[in-house]
Each structure stands twice: as C-alpha cells, then as structure tokens.
Write a structure and sequence with these properties.
Structural class: alpha/beta
Helix content: 25-40%
Number of domains: 2
Order of helices and strands: HHEHEHHHHHHHEEHHEHEEEH
Strand content: 5-15%
Length: 338
C-alpha cells in the first residue's frame, strides 16, 4: 500500500495520462496542474555536437531535467557539478530511472531499454528495480502494473501512450548519434564510473525557467534547450504565434543572474530549421523580439531528419548583458565528424 501522498498524486496523474488523450489536466477549480506532464525519455537534440562547445570539464552546470540526457552527458563530459530544473515533477523520477539504468545495465541493455521496439522491457526493469529510490520504484511499479492490464501483443511504446512524448521514442542508432556517452562501450563505462564516484549527486529543483535566480547561483554553463519556444508561442499553426516577449526577457535576466561572469548559456535550440513553421518563427519573430540578431548562431546537423539543420544560440555573460562568444565555435568540432 502506498502511503506517500506526493507519490500517490504522481501515480494518479500518470494513470490519467495513460488512459486519456490529454497531456495535461485541469483540476476541479479550473487551474492547470502545473507539475505533472508527459515525459521525455530521450533527447532529440544533437547533444553529441553542441554539448562539447564549450568544454564542460571542471564546470558547474545547470540543465533542464527533461529526459535526463543533458545531465548524464554533462557528467560524462567532466562537469564538476550538475543541477537540473523542471516544472514537471515526474521528470525527476524519470531521471532517477535513467541514471540507475546506466549504472546497472550494460550499454547494450540500456540501448534495448530506451529504444524501440524493446522500449521499457520489463525484464530489464526488474534488473534495476531494487536500486531505484523508493518513490521512483513505487511510481514505475505502478506503471508496469497498469501495462500488464493491457493487451499482451501491444508494444510498451504503444501501451504507454501519452505518458511518453512520441517524438522522443527513438531507434538505437539515433540514441547513439545524439548522446556522447553512448558512442562506445568505453564511453558508457566512463559514465558509469563517474556516476558511482560523484562527489555531489545531481540535484533537481521543481521550478520554471524564469525562477532560476531564486534557486541557483554561480554556474559556469546554463543550457536552456528549447524552453523559450514554449513562452514565445502557444501552438504550432501556420499563421498564429502568440509571442510573450516579456516572459522571455525575464528568463534571459534569470539566466544572467545565475551565471558567473563570462559564463556561457545556450539560450535556444531550434529544431529542423528548414521546416516552414520553424524558419518563419525564427526569422520573423524570435531574433527580432529577443534582440538576438547580432549573435552568430551555431548550425548543427539534425540527426532525426534528413537534410535538416538545427540552430543553437550560444551567448556569454558580460557583466549585465550577453555578448557573442569570443571563439570560433564552428572550427572546434565539425558536424561531419559525427
């Protein structure tokens, strides 16, 4: 019997997500439930390229919790400390599952567990179950119990439905292409070793991107992923983008407060720049509204779409403002080397 009311609430929302087509829920008072959302189980950003720019070695890092891939790769790349933030409390359970999977599964088993069609194989879950934190174990035990009530011939990726963002269900080759720690057995073993030897465990905070300066300080590097896009438009449509530039400016200010002077931030990751809606959004609104047109973007191959290119805006703190990085990022690592 589950007696922890917090984890019981998370299990309840997870089951609601599984049983409906809704990714978020309105409570009885009409408010959006702000801390339970569907999960990202793997990144679709090309972390294998841009997380190496600049060096993470010996640095204090802040990244979104999200799928956990940003944090794990930061540890693999030599970060001194890693902290994460997210508005989704389920993401913290998701991270614990993934970190534990790295520690106690082989690279081949990990790739099976997180890629289709063997995604969330129950035999592999049972192999790591005893090593999970109690709340994480109760949460995922409940999920697997629910999956056992569904037709046996369905894949777990189908059974999990909206609990997992479908765009993040990937083939093993995409997981390897996007994540530095999955490049080889050797790199995977290096991450395992670093996780077991961490002097400070990864800390997670439940907070929004514009609240970072009340929770964190003195970071060398902050990664914002694509969070800004959620404040800059409400939905993907051909003509209607709802810009909230005031909130975006608050996020920029919050990140600036968190960074050390000369610290570096990845302000935005835009996917598949050549797609019509993203290109229109980027060229007509984002750079103008956020005054980013003076920054040289980093272009990187998009591993999940053929002939597509992602765009990343990296900036450096200069007292109270951001400035372009004083280095030639394009020359350090070529996308063609992936």
């Amino acid at each position: 019997m589950i007696t922890n009311p917090d984890i019981q609430k998370k299990i309840s929302f997870a089951r609601k997500i599984l049983k409906t087509n809704k990714l978020r829920f309105i409570d009885s008072e009409g408010s959006l439930t702000a801390n339970c959302y569907s999960l990202y189980v793997s990144t679709n950003e090309n972390l294998n390229y841009y997380l190496r720019l600049p060096s993470f070695k010996g640095k204090d890092i802040l990244v979104p919790t999200a799928s956990g891939d940003h944090a794990l790769n930061a540890i693999y790349l030599g970060a001194k400390s890693v902290e994460t933030f997210d508005i989704n409390s389920l993401a913290m359970l998701n991270y614990d599952l993934k970190e534990t999977a790295v520690k106690y599964l082989t690279r081949e088993e990990y790739l099976q567990f997180y890629s289709i069609p063997t995604f969330f194989d129950e035999t592999l879950y049972l192999k790591i179950r005893e090593h999970l934190k109690p709340d994480t174990r109760m949460f995922y035990d409940s999920i697997y119990s629910y999956l056992d009530t569904l037709p046996y011939d369905q894949l777990n990726s189908e059974k999990l439905g909206n609990l997992i963002e479908e765009m993040n269900l990937q083939k093993r080759e995409n997981l390897i292409a996007n994540n530095p720690f999955l490049k080889s057995d050797r790199s995977y073993a290096a991450l395992q070793d670093r996780l077991f030897k961490l002097s400070k465990p990864v800390k997670h905070k439940l907070c929004s991107a514009h609240e970072l300066n009340s929770e964190f300080k003195d970071k060398d590097i902050v990664i914002l992923s694509n969070i800004l896009r959620y404040y800059l438009y409400e939905e993907y449509t051909d003509i209607d983008y709802a810009m909230d530039t005031d909130m975006a400016e608050k996020i920029k200010a919050s990140i600036s407060d968190v960074l050390k002077n000369d610290g570096i931030a990845s302000l935005l990751y835009i996917y598949a720049l050549k797609s019509r809606d993203k290109k229109w959004f980027l060229e007509e609104n984002l750079e103008k509204s956020l005054d980013l047109s003076g920054f040289s973007p980093l272009f990187v191959k998009h591993n999940l779409k053929e002939n597509a290119e992602d765009k990343i805006i990296l900036v450096q703190k200069d007292n109270e403002r951001f400035k372009p990085l004083e280095q030639d990022l394009e020359s350090e690592i070529s996308p063609r080397s992936l």
